[in-house]
Amino acid sequence: MKIDCRHVWDHISAYIDGDVDAVLRAEIDRHLEHCEICSAVMDSTRNVVILIADERVFEIPAGYSERLHSRLEAVLATESPG
Questions:
Q1: How many angstroms separate the CA atoms of 70 and 21, rounded?
Q2: 16 and 46 Cβ atoms separated by less than 8 Å
Q3: Which alpha helices (DSSP H) does 11-63 contain, by range?
Q4: pLDDT at 1 over 80
Q5: 38 contacts: CB under 8 Å, gap ≥ 6
Q6: Sign of CA dihedral 32, 29, 3, 13
């Protein structure tokens, strides 16, 4: 079984969770050895999973929300419709 990038992307979640069979895992591992793009996607996906699972709470600086909304409103006001 020869897999391509699309196969890897379709199975990233199951691969990370350890829910793929041994043959598919071996094929994905072999693909990741030579495909920089899929390796980067895999690393990024793992990082997102780790960040989401992290229960720490980060405090947003005072006034950040107001500044963000003000900036968004300014940008949207300058965009031409349609």
A1: 50
A2: yes
A3: 12-17, 22-34, 36-53
A4: no
A5: 5, 8, 9, 31, 32
A6: negative
Q: Are 30 and 47 in contact (CB under 8 A)?
A: no
Q: The whole model's pTM is what? A: 0.62
Place of tokens 């965009």: 79
Task: Output the six-digit token pair for 70.
Answer: 């003000």
Element spanning 77, H or E: helix 64-78
Task: Judge contact between 31 and 58, C-beta under 8 A.
Answer: no
**Could you state, in order of their start, the residue ranges of all structural domains in the chain?**
5-78
Distance CA 21, CA 15 (A): 9
Q: State residue 78's pLDDT score.
A: 86
